[in-house]
Records
---
Amino acid sequence: MTKRVLILPGDGIGPEIVAEAVKLLDALAGDGLDIELDEGLIGGSAYDAAGSPLPEATLAMAGEADAILLGAVGGPKWEPLDIAVRPEKGLLGLRSELGLFSNLRPAILYPQLASASSLRAEIVAGLDLMIVRELTGGIYFGQPRGVRTLDDGQRQGFNTLVYSENEIVRIVRSACDIAMKRGKRLCSVDKANVLECTELWREVASGVVADEYPEIELSHIYVDNAAMQLIKWPKQFDVIVTTNMFGDILSDAAAMLTGSIGMLPSASLNETGQGMYEPIHGSAPDIAGKGVANPLATILSVSMMLRYSLDEPDIADRVDAAVNAVLDQGLRTPDILSDGMTEVDCEAMGDAVVAAL
Ligand code: NAD
């Protein structure tokens, strides 16, 4: 059956990097991949054209799509806008409308780029770990929340960390499904020694793995130790599953281990397997329009889409191999350039990946 992919270029470098990913998708379609592409507006450019960062038409197309590829949203032009119509609202709205509760953030460091990391090469070269972050619950959404005035007149801020069993079960299942496609090792990160909510998290996670995924080797670790271990020996991890806030922090730390923001893809999945795929970086207004952005994070987002929403793991492997091949050829956009390598622009990098494919 033909799979529908919605393309949302967005703002800043979004249209430049997404164009290279579309080039790749067109090449794959010409090679037998049964997909149909639609294109929609999101973010600041959607606000300019349609008065909303998430127009109804985009939402309708997203609902119909098997997968969504997003560039990036935002930029200084839209910062003065009211928060309700800022570009980021488009992204958050799409996440909540589609129920994208499982956020997959890989941290991969290609051996060819090991010198880009601030850690020693032997610690990070060949790093390949996946952080699965719960995206629609936890302390970022828990009620009650706010700032109140106490009897003595001082203000007090408060938020609520809350997870129900079914929320824990579905994110742990999602992480187990990923682990089954990788090394079958899952590490659940919590703070069960202090927070009852994550004590429940630990108990439920253990139950899901024991009952449904007996092949998976499960470990538990406190979040403070997880932060230390990520810096000390990140290659010990295969898949990490954790709460919204812990995942927010740990996934940024893990991304920075690789030192190259232009190389990292991400995915957000819902219960039906529908997913939104996007590079982890933003719209990079400082280089937008110059044609020098690195399109590889977006191209690797296509690889994740093939693997997790389109059920085409072999084609995903081919895309990953093509990216490896262009790095082996010494081709580098300015953000990952080092001595002795050949500098290319965004378009030439995209062409090289298609040629390597
Ligand atoms: P950013 O990720 O856009 O840029 C940070 C730095 O990394 C910049 O120097 C940029 O030039 C560089 N960079 C990022 N992507 C690159 C690429 N593909 N190739 C080469 N260099 C790259 O983060 P920022 O500057 O903090 O934010 C800029 C705008 O993006 C803001 O409006 C922010 O709200 C938005 N943003 C959007 C998303 C998203 O759409 N998911 C995520 C983060 C930030």
---
Amino acid sequence: MSDGIEITEYSLALLKEATKARAKAHAPYSRFAVGVALRTASGKVYSGANIENTSYPEGWCAETSAISHMIMGAESAQDREIAELVVIADLTPPITPCGGCRQRIKEFATPQTRIHAADLAGIQHSYTLAALLPAAFHLEG
Ligand code: THU
């Protein structure tokens, strides 16, 4: 537990899916494979990996892949709301989503959305989105 955020059986199921997704990363340039799995407010699970490109800036993050899968699978508003997300990579202390991905997550999340950072030994830190992206950009309100 960290930041008072509980690691539940659902978090551990996401960790498993994120680990499987990481194995599918296309990261021949950075050699840094990242996996993400997210659970929606409706209980659906989607995952993704980073996909790099020989034209380096054209690659994208694992979070972006997972969000893309979520949007394509969504049939209701709750299917588009991220309740919880796990990111895993082979780095200790573990990585957290990059700045751009925090904003992408925010598009489909709430301030209470839980983000777990894992290394190969498991989830090490947990945050709310509000903690990772304070004073976030938004046009409305
Ligand atoms: N990467 C992710 O997939 N997610 C993050 O949150 C941080 C970075 C990827 C992008 C690139 O393919 C590799 O990690 C090295 O930066």
